[in-house]
Design brief:
Elements (H helix, E strand, L loop, with lengths): L2 H22 L3 E7 L1 H4 L8 E8 L5 H13 L7 E8 H5 L6 E9 L5 E9 L3 H11 L1 E5 L2 H4 L5 H15 L9 H17 L5 H11 L4 H10 L9 H14 L7
Parallel strand pairs: 2-3
Antiparallel strand pairs: 1-2, 1-6, 3-4, 4-5
Helix pairs in contact: 1-3, 7-8, 7-11, 8-9, 8-10, 8-11
């Protein structure tokens, strides 16, 4: 990403954190930036801003409404969207396989989803978010991730990854989500084999080093880069999902 774009997106993330702090007040224990923007792998126009808020206690209805309005209105700069997750400090300290997510507000400019809101729901995907925030995130406000998030057992992340690989096997005709599925499958695959969290593009390069025949990975990278209209072959998508599922099954210490 160009330096100017990076500065603008990081400024947007910091503004999101500050405005969230204004809404929640002193009960905000930490605002953690994670994902590609935190690791230097942000792709302009394709990557989201990932922000995790850890609070003392639950949110009031007025706070939920204000956070939703904030995500809807804030300038994204060159980001393609926002994923704002809110969890209580108790959940972050004692993660389970399906912890309670206090709030998720997602805004996706390049997707037909638009804005997605989930409040106080059990979330089997939340442990992966917590693990990524702890591993590679850093605090924009408050305490650092390792001081507020306890480690998540890797086998939980692997199990959830295999769930998505299996689910996506029946969705290879979803052209809108094809590149996302393929690149995220590479992330799941790499974590399953090596226990490493990484950005989509890094995971794709890792997968191609491991198996250069993966046409769908190359197609997804083209779509994610300079050719947003580049199609993905359904059989090639199925190949990636099949290999990733096979190589993340029956691993030691799962």
């Amino acid at each position: 990403m160009a330096h100017g774009d990076e500065v603008a997106v990081l400024a947007a993330a910091k503004q999101l954190a500050r405005s969230s702090s204004d809404i929640i007040g002193p009960r905000l224990r930490s605002a953690i930036l994670y994902g590609s923007l935190a690791t230097g792998q942000f792709v302009s126009g394709h990557s989201d801003i990932d922000l995790l808020l850890i609070t003392d206690g639950t949110l009031a209805d007025t706070e939920v409404d204000a956070l939703e309005a904030l995500v809807r209105q804030i300038d994204l700069a060159e980001a393609s969207g926002i994923d704002l997750h809110v969890v209580t400090a108790d959940v972050a300290r004692t993660p389970t396989q399906a912890p309670i997510m206090e709030l998720h507000v997602g805004r996706y400019e390049r997707s037909s989803i638009g804005v997605e809101i989930e409040r106080r729901t059990q979330s089997p995907d939340l442990p992966t978010e917590l693990a990524m925030a702890r591993a590679d995130g850093y605090a924009l406000i408050g305490m650092e991730p390792s001081n507020v998030i306890e480690p998540v057992p890797p086998q939980w992340i692997r199990e959830r990854g295999r769930h998505w690989l299996t689910t996506w096997q029946s969705r290879i005709d979803d052209a809108e989500e094809a590149a996302f599925m393929v690149l995220t499958a590479c992330r799941i695959w790499r974590f399953g084999v090596e226990g490493v969290h990484c950005a989509k593009t890094q995971a794709a390069e890792w997968a191609l080093d491991r198996n250069p025949s993966l046409t769908a990975v190359r197609q997804a990278l083209r779509q994610y880069g300079a050719e947003p209209a580049a199609p993905l072959d359904e059989d090639a998508i199925a190949q990636v999902l099949d290999i990733a599922l096979r190589e993340t099954t029956n691993l030691p210490n799962n």
